[in-house]
């Protein structure tokens, strides 16, 4: 954009902001509505300048502003990191589900919608929530069932001041949560389970509203009968003290796909995979950021590791086409492969910037490490273990990670159905 055009756009935007801030005083627009409207006025470079200006002026907190604007901080510079919703094609065709009913909640922005959700959710139901910001009790999100979906309409739904730990379980079919952002209070998160089904989080964000050493996971598999599939696509998960996505509970036979997600400053592991049979766990096309001190883990003597992807136990894993930006002086390695006595870990085409810790740590026996095309940049490009064969380039001149990621349209799972039992084939 030319400087003259940029100045004109910024002037128009400033007038729009002032008008809408005035409207806010009279209750015509909420602050959330004002910030959301910015998305439709200017390109990302101008939005970045505007975001910085209005954050400096104290109009809204850093985390809230970034969430609503769809921006992220990497390396201390405001960038268009795509941390908000990726409004692209879903990886699952809704026709793979067989809902018997559709409900759009009759609610208004700012409502407590707990009761409405409790009444509407059920197996075979697709429930839609109008675009807006709401309050919801954690137990209203407790759900066990199949062929069900909870979907935020428009530019999305935000649940604020979310406190608790609901259990969401796909039992005998598919369950999908889509286009929803949850501002999570300390000590809160989600317990997840899949039994003969697939649990999908599509464009589902979980962000801690204040960093707290609460030992909580963002998403945790915790049931010994888990034998299904988990899909996270186009999600943002940030600030949890005890893993962002925890999907390696042995002896469970789960399968996990994490695709085009953005994970920011989660402690212990941002994504943990391992155990399971059948198809490999897949972590693909994601952006991992560790650019500021992470929350100490109160249950592990204040540990601050924040590994990017940690794969352990004997399940197979494919980790490919991810970008890692690890600039904080503490913490651990972006990729850690260990405790494997069997199975294969495949690392392909990852771009890793690590300024302090070894970018890839491999400490295992009896397993296979394979792959190619991985590029290492930053102040530390030394790997541990027999990792050299999978490294294409290390040091100056190598491909550096970008500060945003785009979601592809390739399905993470085969969406055909096994006619013998009606469950989704993976």
Counted beta strands: 31
Flag low-confidence runs.
Answer: 28-97, 408-426
Largest sheet: 20 strands, parallel
Principal-axes geometry comes out as globular
Query: Helical element count?
Result: 5
Tally of individual domains: 2
Cα distance, first to last residue? 45 Å
Return Rg in Å. 21 Å
Roughly what is the average pLDDT, rounded to an integer?
A: 75
Work out the helicity level.
10-25%
Portion in strands: 25-35%
Oligomer: single chain
The CATH topology of the largest domain: Pectate Lyase C-like
CATH class of the largest domain: Mainly Beta
User: From the coordinates shown, what is the CATH architecture of the largest domain?
Assistant: 3 Solenoid
Structural class: alpha/beta
Offer a concise description of the structure:
With 426 residues, this protein is an alpha/beta fold. It contains five helices and 31 strands.
Question: Keywords, please?
Answer:
single chain; alpha/beta; Pectate Lyase C-like; 2 domains; 20-stranded parallel β-sheet; nine-stranded parallel β-sheet
Question: What does this protein look like?
Answer:
This protein is an alpha/beta fold. It contains five helices and 31 strands. It has a 20-stranded parallel sheet that branches. Strands 6-9-11-13-16-19-22-25-28 form a nine-stranded parallel sheet, with no helix packed on it. The longest helix is centred in the N-terminal third of the chain and has 24 residues, at 3-26.
Ordered list of secondary-structure elements with their pairings:
Elements: H1 3-26, H2 31-37, H3 44-56, H4 62-69, E1 72-74, E2 77-79, E3 101-104, H5 114-120, E4 125-129, E5 132-134, E6 143-145, E7 148-152, E8 157-162, E9 167-171, E10 174-184, E11 190-195, E12 198-208, E13 219-221, E14 229-233, E15 236-238, E16 245-247, E17 255-259, E18 262-264, E19 269-274, E20 281-284, E21 287-290, E22 307-312, E23 317-320, E24 323-326, E25 335-338, E26 344-348, E27 351-354, E28 360-363, E29 368-372, E30 374-377, E31 391-394
Parallel strand pairs: 3-4, 4-7, 5-8, 6-9, 7-10, 8-10, 9-11, 10-12, 11-13, 12-14, 12-15, 13-16, 14-17, 15-18, 16-19, 17-20, 18-21, 19-22, 20-23, 21-24, 22-25, 23-26, 24-27, 25-28, 26-29, 27-30, 30-31
Antiparallel strand pairs: 1-2
């Amino acid at each position: 954009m030319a400087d003259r055009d940029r100045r004109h756009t910024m002037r128009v935007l400033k007038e729009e902001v002032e008008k809408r801030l005035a409207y806010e005083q009279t209750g015509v627009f909420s602050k959330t509505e004002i910030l959301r409207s910015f998305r439709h006025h200017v390109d990302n470079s101008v939005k970045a300048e505007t975001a910085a200006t209005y954050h400096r002026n104290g109009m809204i907190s850093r985390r809230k502003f970034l969430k609503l604007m769809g921006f992220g901080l990497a390396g201390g510079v405001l960038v268009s990191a795509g941390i908000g919703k990726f409004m692209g094609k879903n990886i699952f065709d809704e026709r793979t589900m067989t809902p018997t009913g559709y409900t759009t909640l009759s609610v208004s922005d700012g409502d407590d919608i707990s009761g409405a959700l409790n009444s509407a959710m059920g197996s075979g139901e697709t429930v839609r929530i109008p675009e807006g910001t709401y309050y919801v009790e954690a137990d209203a999100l407790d759900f066990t069932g199949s062929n069900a979906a909870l979907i935020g309409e428009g530019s999305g739904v935000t649940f604020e001041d979310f406190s608790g730990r609901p259990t969401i379980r796909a039992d005998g079919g598919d369950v999908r949560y889509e286009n929803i952002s949850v501002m999570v209070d300390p000590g809160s998160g989600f317990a997840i389970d899949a039994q003969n089904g697939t649990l999908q989080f599509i464009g589902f964000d979980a962000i801690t509203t204040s960093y707290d050493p609460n030992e909580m996971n963002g998403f945790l598999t915790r049931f010994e009968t888990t034998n299904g599939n988990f899909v996270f696509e186009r999600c943002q998960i940030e600030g949890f003290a005890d893993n962002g996505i925890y999907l390696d509970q042995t002896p469970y036979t789960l399968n996990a796909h994490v695709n085009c997600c953005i994970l920011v400053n989660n402690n212990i592991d941002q994504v943990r995979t391992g155990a399971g049979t059948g198809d490999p766990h897949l972590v693909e096309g994601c952006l991992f950021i560790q650019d500021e001190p992470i929350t100490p883990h109160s249950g592990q003597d204040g540990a601050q590791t924040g590994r990017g992807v940690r794969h352990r136990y004997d399940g197979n894993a494919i980790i490919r086409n991810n970008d890692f930006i690890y600039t904080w002086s503490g913490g651990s390695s972006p990729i850690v492969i260990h405790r494997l006595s069997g199975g294969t870990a495949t690392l392909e085409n990852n771009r890793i910037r690590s300024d302090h810790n070894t970018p890839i740590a491999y400490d295992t026996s009896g397993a296979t490490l394979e792959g190619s095309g991985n590029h290492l940049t930053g102040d530390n490009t030394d790997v541990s273990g027999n990792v050299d064969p999978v490294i294409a380039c290390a040091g100056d001149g190598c491909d550096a990670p970008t500060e945003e990621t785009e979601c592809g349209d390739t399905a993470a799972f085969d969406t055909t159905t096994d006619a013998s039992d009606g469950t989704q084939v993976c």
